[in-house]
Automatic annotation (TrEMBL):
This is Pantothenate synthetase. The lineage of its organism: Bacteria, Pseudomonadati, Pseudomonadota, Alphaproteobacteria, Hyphomicrobiales. One of its GO terms (cellular component) is cytosol. Its EC number is 6.3.2.1. Homodimer. It comes from the Bacteria. PANTHER family: CYTIDYLATE KINASE/PANTOATE-BETA-ALANINE LIGASE (PTHR21299), PANTOATE--BETA-ALANINE LIGASE (PTHR21299:SF1). It catalyses: (R)-pantoate + beta-alanine + ATP = (R)-pantothenate + AMP + diphosphate + H(+). (R)-pantoate binds at residues 64, 156.
Length: 280
């Protein structure tokens, strides 16, 4: 089976990208942690439409996992990933942890402002510093014209867009829509952790968001909608971390639809934590 060409050093990545840019070609980067599914591949297709050359990074970034999270058991399927990217991307960038964080590494992006406040940050307080630092490094290593991120991780997308503006990173940050299973469950590398029973319950997350968005659009009070949604999720067996209405751009808390808003949720089914969001 064909495999996408792969480099695992910053030097190899820079040489490939420099030769393309030298030829006047536009380069897109799609950062991932691998275990690629159709959602990831939709980002690659979006990148294809925006650039001449597409680089997909595959790096399970230890610094965005808390000690109690699933870093060591996070799925690693590099050979499959390389086969899936054959013909879709020009290059996979697969650095080892030591390439990304050489001995003595001591610098971290620190985030301020509403995009990084609350929601995921309330439950994973070291997560976004890890994400922002590794994405800043990837953007500086690859120097792409454009980088594509999924709306599936909506807060992450907004944190990264803010960071890129604030640090004058030159890549244009593009968000792409969430790819779902037929029953509405957002594709995620973590869905494979769900038992059959949990998998059957999981689509309730998306249905709750759809129902909440419909009620909000019909003029129902945001507090009442959130309470009803939390109750519906709890009744289906979820432990809810948050269900919240936020400004779609800044992610500041809002209680009405005066500006475009986003309804975001994180909830646990057994040991698996699922997140999703919907435009309102
Ligand atoms: P991950 O490998 O989970 O870090 O995700 C890599 C990128 O793929 C991120 O920008 C995610 O938002 C995006 N992504 C993950 N799941 C989906 C999905 N179901 N639809 C679209 N994009 C996704």
């Amino acid at each position: 089976m064909d495999r996408v060409a792969t480099v695992d050093t910053v030097k190899g990545l820079r040489e490939a990208v420099a030769s393309w840019r030298g030829a006047g070609e536009r380069v897109a980067l799609v950062p991932t942690m691998g275990a690629l599914h159709v959602g990831h591949l939709s980002l690659v297709e979006r990148a294809r439409a925006l650039a001449d050359r597409v680089v997909v990074s595959i790096f399970v970034n230890p610094t965005q996992f808390a000690p109690n999270e699933d870093f060591s058991k996070y799925p690693r399927t590099l050979d499959d990933d390389r086969a899936k990217l054959a013909g879709l991307a020009e290059l996979a960038y697969t650095p080892l942890v030591e390439e990304m964080y050489p001995p003595g590494f001591a610098t971290t992006v620190s985030l301020a402002g509403p995009a990084a406040a609350g929601l995921e940050d309330a439950f994973r307080p070291t997560h976004f510093a890890g994400v922002a630092t590794v994405v800043a490094k990837l953007l500086l290593q690859a120097l792409p014209d454009v980088a594509v991120f999924g709306e599936k991780d909506y807060q992450q997308l907004k944190v990264i867009a803010r960071m890129a503006r604030d640090l004058d990173l030159t890549a244009e940050i593009i968000g792409a829509p969430t790819v779902r299973e037929a029953d509405g469950l957002a594709l995620s590398s973590r869905n494979r952790y769900l038992s059959d029973e949990e998998r059957a319950l999981a689509p309730t997350l998306h249905r709750t968001l759809q129902d909440g968005a419909a009620r909000l659009r019909a003029g129902e009070d945001a507090g009442a909608v959130v309470t009803a949604g939390e109750d519906a999720l709890a009744a289906a067996g979820f432990a809810v971390d948050y269900l919240a209405l936020r400004d779609a751009e800044t992610l500041a808390p809002v209680s009405d639809l005066a500006a475009p808003a986003r309804l975001l949720v994180a909830a646990r089914l057994g040991a698996t934590r699922l997140i999703d969001n919907i435009a309102v």
